[in-house]
Design brief:
- By secondary structure, the chain is α/β, with parallel strands linked by helices.
- The protein has 3 domains: 3-95, Rossmann fold (3-Layer(aba) Sandwich); 125-190, ATP-grasp fold, A domain (Dna Ligase, domain 1, 2-Layer Sandwich); 193-339, D-amino Acid Aminotransferase, Chain A, domain 1 (2-Layer Sandwich), CATH 3.30.470.20.
- The chain has 12 helices and 16 strands.
- It has helices at residues 12-22, 39-44, 56-66, 76-80, 83-89, 103-106, 108-117, 135-142, 169-181, 247-268, 300-307, 312-321; strands at 3-8, 28-34, 47-50, 70-73, 93-95, 126-129, 146-150, 159-161, 186-190, 195-204, 208-210, 215-221, 225-236, 273-283, 286-293, 336-339.
- A 5-stranded parallel beta sheet has the order 3-2-1-4-5, with helices on both faces.
Length: 342
């Protein structure tokens, strides 16, 4: 048995990952290390074990016990805890970046600083704060076009946007104080105006293969109203673009992902191996980067993996072996819709 695959995580995203692996005709065993019992995953896997997926030593111990040859990390928290580092150290090739490279998601300030240092386009005017010094002045400079972002993981809920969640500078200042009281730093940046979209790329550290563009709707209520969530629903188009995107918009997003992967390798001396997920906005001034995630989106994974025609195991092996350029990654020309019922 060559393919003993460990999937870490047990949400809808990981269900989509396991289903994609299950479609492979290769001989395989699939193990899932889960934070909760997911019956859909349990039905497909050879074994599902519930445990602390954020404990690197526990994950390593389980991987050794299962004799895993390949691991796929679904959620962001294990990446932030260094689970990929420990698995690689134990000889388990892993789809998912090591802790330093996962800062692309775990620190908003890190990502903005990286793009600025490497002259990668798409970034806003921004400043990072660990106190209230200079906050009022920078808000005044941005006027009503600002966003306040917690500098860490918040499940998609740490961002507050002027005009949507914050209606006065006093409300923005109160939110900044709330973040500081919780021991956090934060970023204030220029607000982009346009249409949001997600574009994920498979990355082996040198080569990228891009997935179809997806649009995510994060607001909790109908009509794009209410607070941000981790995602309430997504769709993709049959041409792998979106109705509001031009070919040039897609090309710009591809170029930003490629440049970011190169910058990470230059900065850390090793490549980013996993899923590079850019959250973009198409504006009248070109494509802008809102943020990066260091793994498949949830629910975006359900859209793109349901369309995947290439053997997913071949893609994962290409990622960890550095041979992704030799894999012909293909997606069906179909539209997808994913809607959450809450």
């Amino acid at each position: 048995m060559d393919n003993k695959i460990l999937v870490i995580g047990s949400a809808a995203r990981e269900h989509a990952i396991v289903r994609a692996l299950g479609r492979s005709h290769q001989e395989k065993e699939i193990y899932c290390l889960a934070s909760n019992m997911n019956p859909g995953i349990a039905e497909i896997c050879d074994e599902l074990t519930v445990g602390n997926i954020n404990d690197p030593n526990f994950v390593m111990s389980y991987a050794k016990e299962a004799r895993a040859t390949l691991a796929i990390i679904g959620p962001e928290n294990p990446l932030a805890k260094g689970v990929a580092d420990v698995l690689w150290g134990a000889g388990v090739k892993t789809v998912g970046p090591k802790k330093d490279l996962a800062q692309l998601e775990t620190s908003k300030a890190f990502t903005r600083d990286l793009l600025k240092a490497y002259n990668i386009p798409g970034g806003p005017k921004y400043q990072t704060f660990d106190s209230m010094d200079g906050v009022v002045e920078f808000l005044n400079e941005l006027d009503e076009n600002y966003v306040v972002k917690y500098d860490g993981l918040a499940g998609g809920k740490g961002v507050k946007v002027a005009g949507d969640h914050l209606h006065t500078h006093n409300e923005a200042i109160a939110y900044c104080n709330e973040l500081l009281d919780g021991g956090g730093e934060f970023v204030i940046e220029e607000k982009f105006v346009g249409e949001e979209f997600s574009l994920m790329s498979f990355c082996d550290g040198n080569n990228l293969k891009h997935m179809p563009a997806v649009q995510d709707h994060k607001r909790a209520y109908e009509g794009d109203k209410g607070p941000n969530t981790g995602g309430m629903g997504t769709y993709s188009d049959a041409n792998h673009g979106l109705p509001f995107l031009t070919d040039d918009d897609i090309a710009q997003a591809h170029a930003i992902n490629i440049s970011t992967a190169k910058a990470l390798k230059d900065k850390f001396g090793e490549g980013y191996t996993g899923i590079l997920y850019g959250g973009f906005m198409a504006t009248v001034n070109g494509v802008k980067l809102i943020e990066y995630n260091a793994r498949f989106g949830d629910p975006e994974a359900m859209n793109v993996l349901s369309l995947l025609e290439t053997d997913f195991i071949d893609i994962c092996v290409g990622i960890v072996e550095g041979t992704l350029d030799q894999v012909d990654v293909r997606f069906a020309n179909k539209a997808t819709v994913c809607k959450y019922a809450v």
